[in-house]
Each structure stands twice: as structure tokens, then as C-alpha cells.
Amino acid sequence: MESNCINRYLLCLMMLLMFLGLAAQSPFNIETFTNPAKYGWTNWDDRINYRNDLYERQKLLQIYEIDSESISGNVLKSAVFPGWGQFNARQYTKGQVFLAIEIAMLGSSYFFYDRAQDNYNKYQSATQIDQMNSYYQAAQAPYQYSLVFLTFATVVWAYNIFDVVQSTEQYNANVWQKALKTYYQAPVKLGPEGLEIEF
Amino acid sequence: MKMKSSPFFQKGVDTFASNVLNHLSEGLKLPILVFVLITVLFLCACELKRNNPLDPNNPGILLPDRVVGLVASGSGPGVISKFVELKWNKNQENTDGYYIYMGLAYNSAYERVGWTSNVTPDSTVSKIVPIEAPGFYYFKVSAYKYYGNNTSIPDPIEYSSDFLEGSLSEYKLARVDN
Q1: Which of A71, A174, B8, B122 lies 20 to 30 angstroms, CA to CA, from A57?
Q2: How many domains does chain A have?
Q3: Cα four-point dihedral sign B137, B142, B143, B145
Q4: What is the reported pTM?
């Protein structure tokens, strides 16, 4: 019994809210909606040209979307494996350079870290003060080199992420330009008005 | 006919990422450069921890003094059991004993050949090192201090990881005759 009352109450509340929502809407203005001047058309030819232009762009967009690369996808790839995104954006040299620098930096960092760790282990087990100081000093310098190389590797990695956005944008712009060029230089075009042949 | 591509195609995440990074590239070049430089300097200033339990940088760990006044004299001619007698000044504090090292040249590797405690009423400590063959031998001595948990000091060779050893003394040459 009580649950029926609550259900009715909720139903009334929902209807009230819907009514308030409808009342809050601004009235639909048919004149504004159908006014062709809002698009900047001054005559019938403008409208036809705009429609043709839009139609052509939509066709080109399909070509573009097939050939273009996703920026976020390339960023993810470059984040995982530096240079991968640049490879995808057909900037092979740049990708190779990023990959090589990253491998060199991380390799150097690991090399120095390993050397530092070796001496540090000896320092930790040393009992003679001269050996203790000697091993500590021998561990200190490679440890700092390791950190510096790691920092540069991080900087290069971050720049690689930054660069892949620009590379992908450039690649996509090139794809678009190429699509445009290919389309407008094609001798045969299919448009809304039928086949168009240029001589 | 010229067509604008950018407003038509940039969208969603791509647009957002692109805008953020373009903004970064234009307005924040100097701060990023400064940040990188500060990070590099900070990392260069980072040091490894001196966490060896016997490191004198730890509180309560005192380094034994360096041994001074070392004298080495070899056994004379005709002695069957050849030896070298070492004498040095006793360390008055921070020393539980001494390690003795022997080498075949002044700049050669020195091998530990014995040890002796610091328990002596005299102001000098002496130790006799047996020698197998006549020749010239170089000696160095270092002091050690026990930092283990035992109440009595154990064998400093067997439990050497609990002993902090000070700097080696100057070398001394001893001639052992045939």
C-alpha cells in the first residue's frame, strides 16, 4: 500500500519535472531556422555551390580518414616505443633518430648504473676505511652519470611525444592536400550533377 | 579553389592534445628549459647513501687512529726459524687490535698475515711474523675496532665483517738473512 503511494508520488514528480523542462525551453523560431542568409548565401547559386562544396568535402573526408593517422594513437605508440609514432607518420629518419637516441641514453644510463652498483656493493661490504672511501667515490660518479643520462632520456622521450603530435598533424595535412590535389586533378569526377570530365 | 582543412578535421582528443602541446611550445619554452636544467642539476647533486654499518659517518662509529712508529727488523743470519719482528706505538683509544700486512715490494699488493690485540701494558705493541724464506719483505699495520654484538671480541679474521679497520701505516722494509 505504502509502495503504491510512493510510486504515484514519484510519477507525479517526474511529470512535473518534464513539464517544467518543456516550459523552460525557448520557443522554436521557424523563421530563424529556415533563414538561408545565416549561411552567407545571397542567391540560389551560392547555395548550390555550398552544397557541392560540402559534398566534395565529404567525399574527400572519407579518403582522408582512411589515410590519416590518429594523433592520440601515435602519441600512445611513441610513449610506449619512442619513434614509433614518427614511423607511422612516415617520418622515418626522425623516428630512427629518436629511437637511436633513446636506446643510447638508456643504455648509457644502465651501463653507468651497473658500474655504480658494482662499486656500491663493494662499498657496503668493505670494512677497511680506505677501501670504503675508494669504492664509495668509485660508485658516486657513475651513479650521477647514470642519473644525467636518465634525465636526458626522459627529456628526449618527452620531446618525442611533443614531436609526434606535430609530425602527425603535418602528415595529416599532407594527406588532405594530397587528397585535394588528386581529386581536383582527376580528369573524371562524379558529382551531384552527374559525371564531369575535364580535358 | 582553396579549402581550409584544420577546422573541419580537428576534433575530440586529437584537437585537445594538439592545442595543449601547441600552447606549450609557444608559451612555455623557457620554463620547460629551466625545469630541465634544474632537474639535471638536482640529480647531479644526488648522492648515494653511506649506509655501510661500519661507515664512520654513522653516529657512534669511531675510526681507529692510523698506526705510527712502525719498525721492522728481520732475523739475523743462521737462524733456523726465520722471522720479522714488528714494533709500533700503541693506539690509546678507539682500537681493539691490529692487522699486519706483508708485501714483496713497496707498491705491491699487501696480504694480511696476522693480527694482534691492543691489550698490552706497554706503550708499544710488538708482533713476530714467521718467514719461510730469506729476502726483503715490506710490512704495513692497521688498527681495528670491533663493532659487533658479542661482549667479548671474537677472532678478527673469521668475523672481519664486524671490525672497522683504519688506514694502513707507512710501509717498512725488513731484511731476513739466510
Answers
A1: A71
A2: 1
A3: negative
A4: 0.67
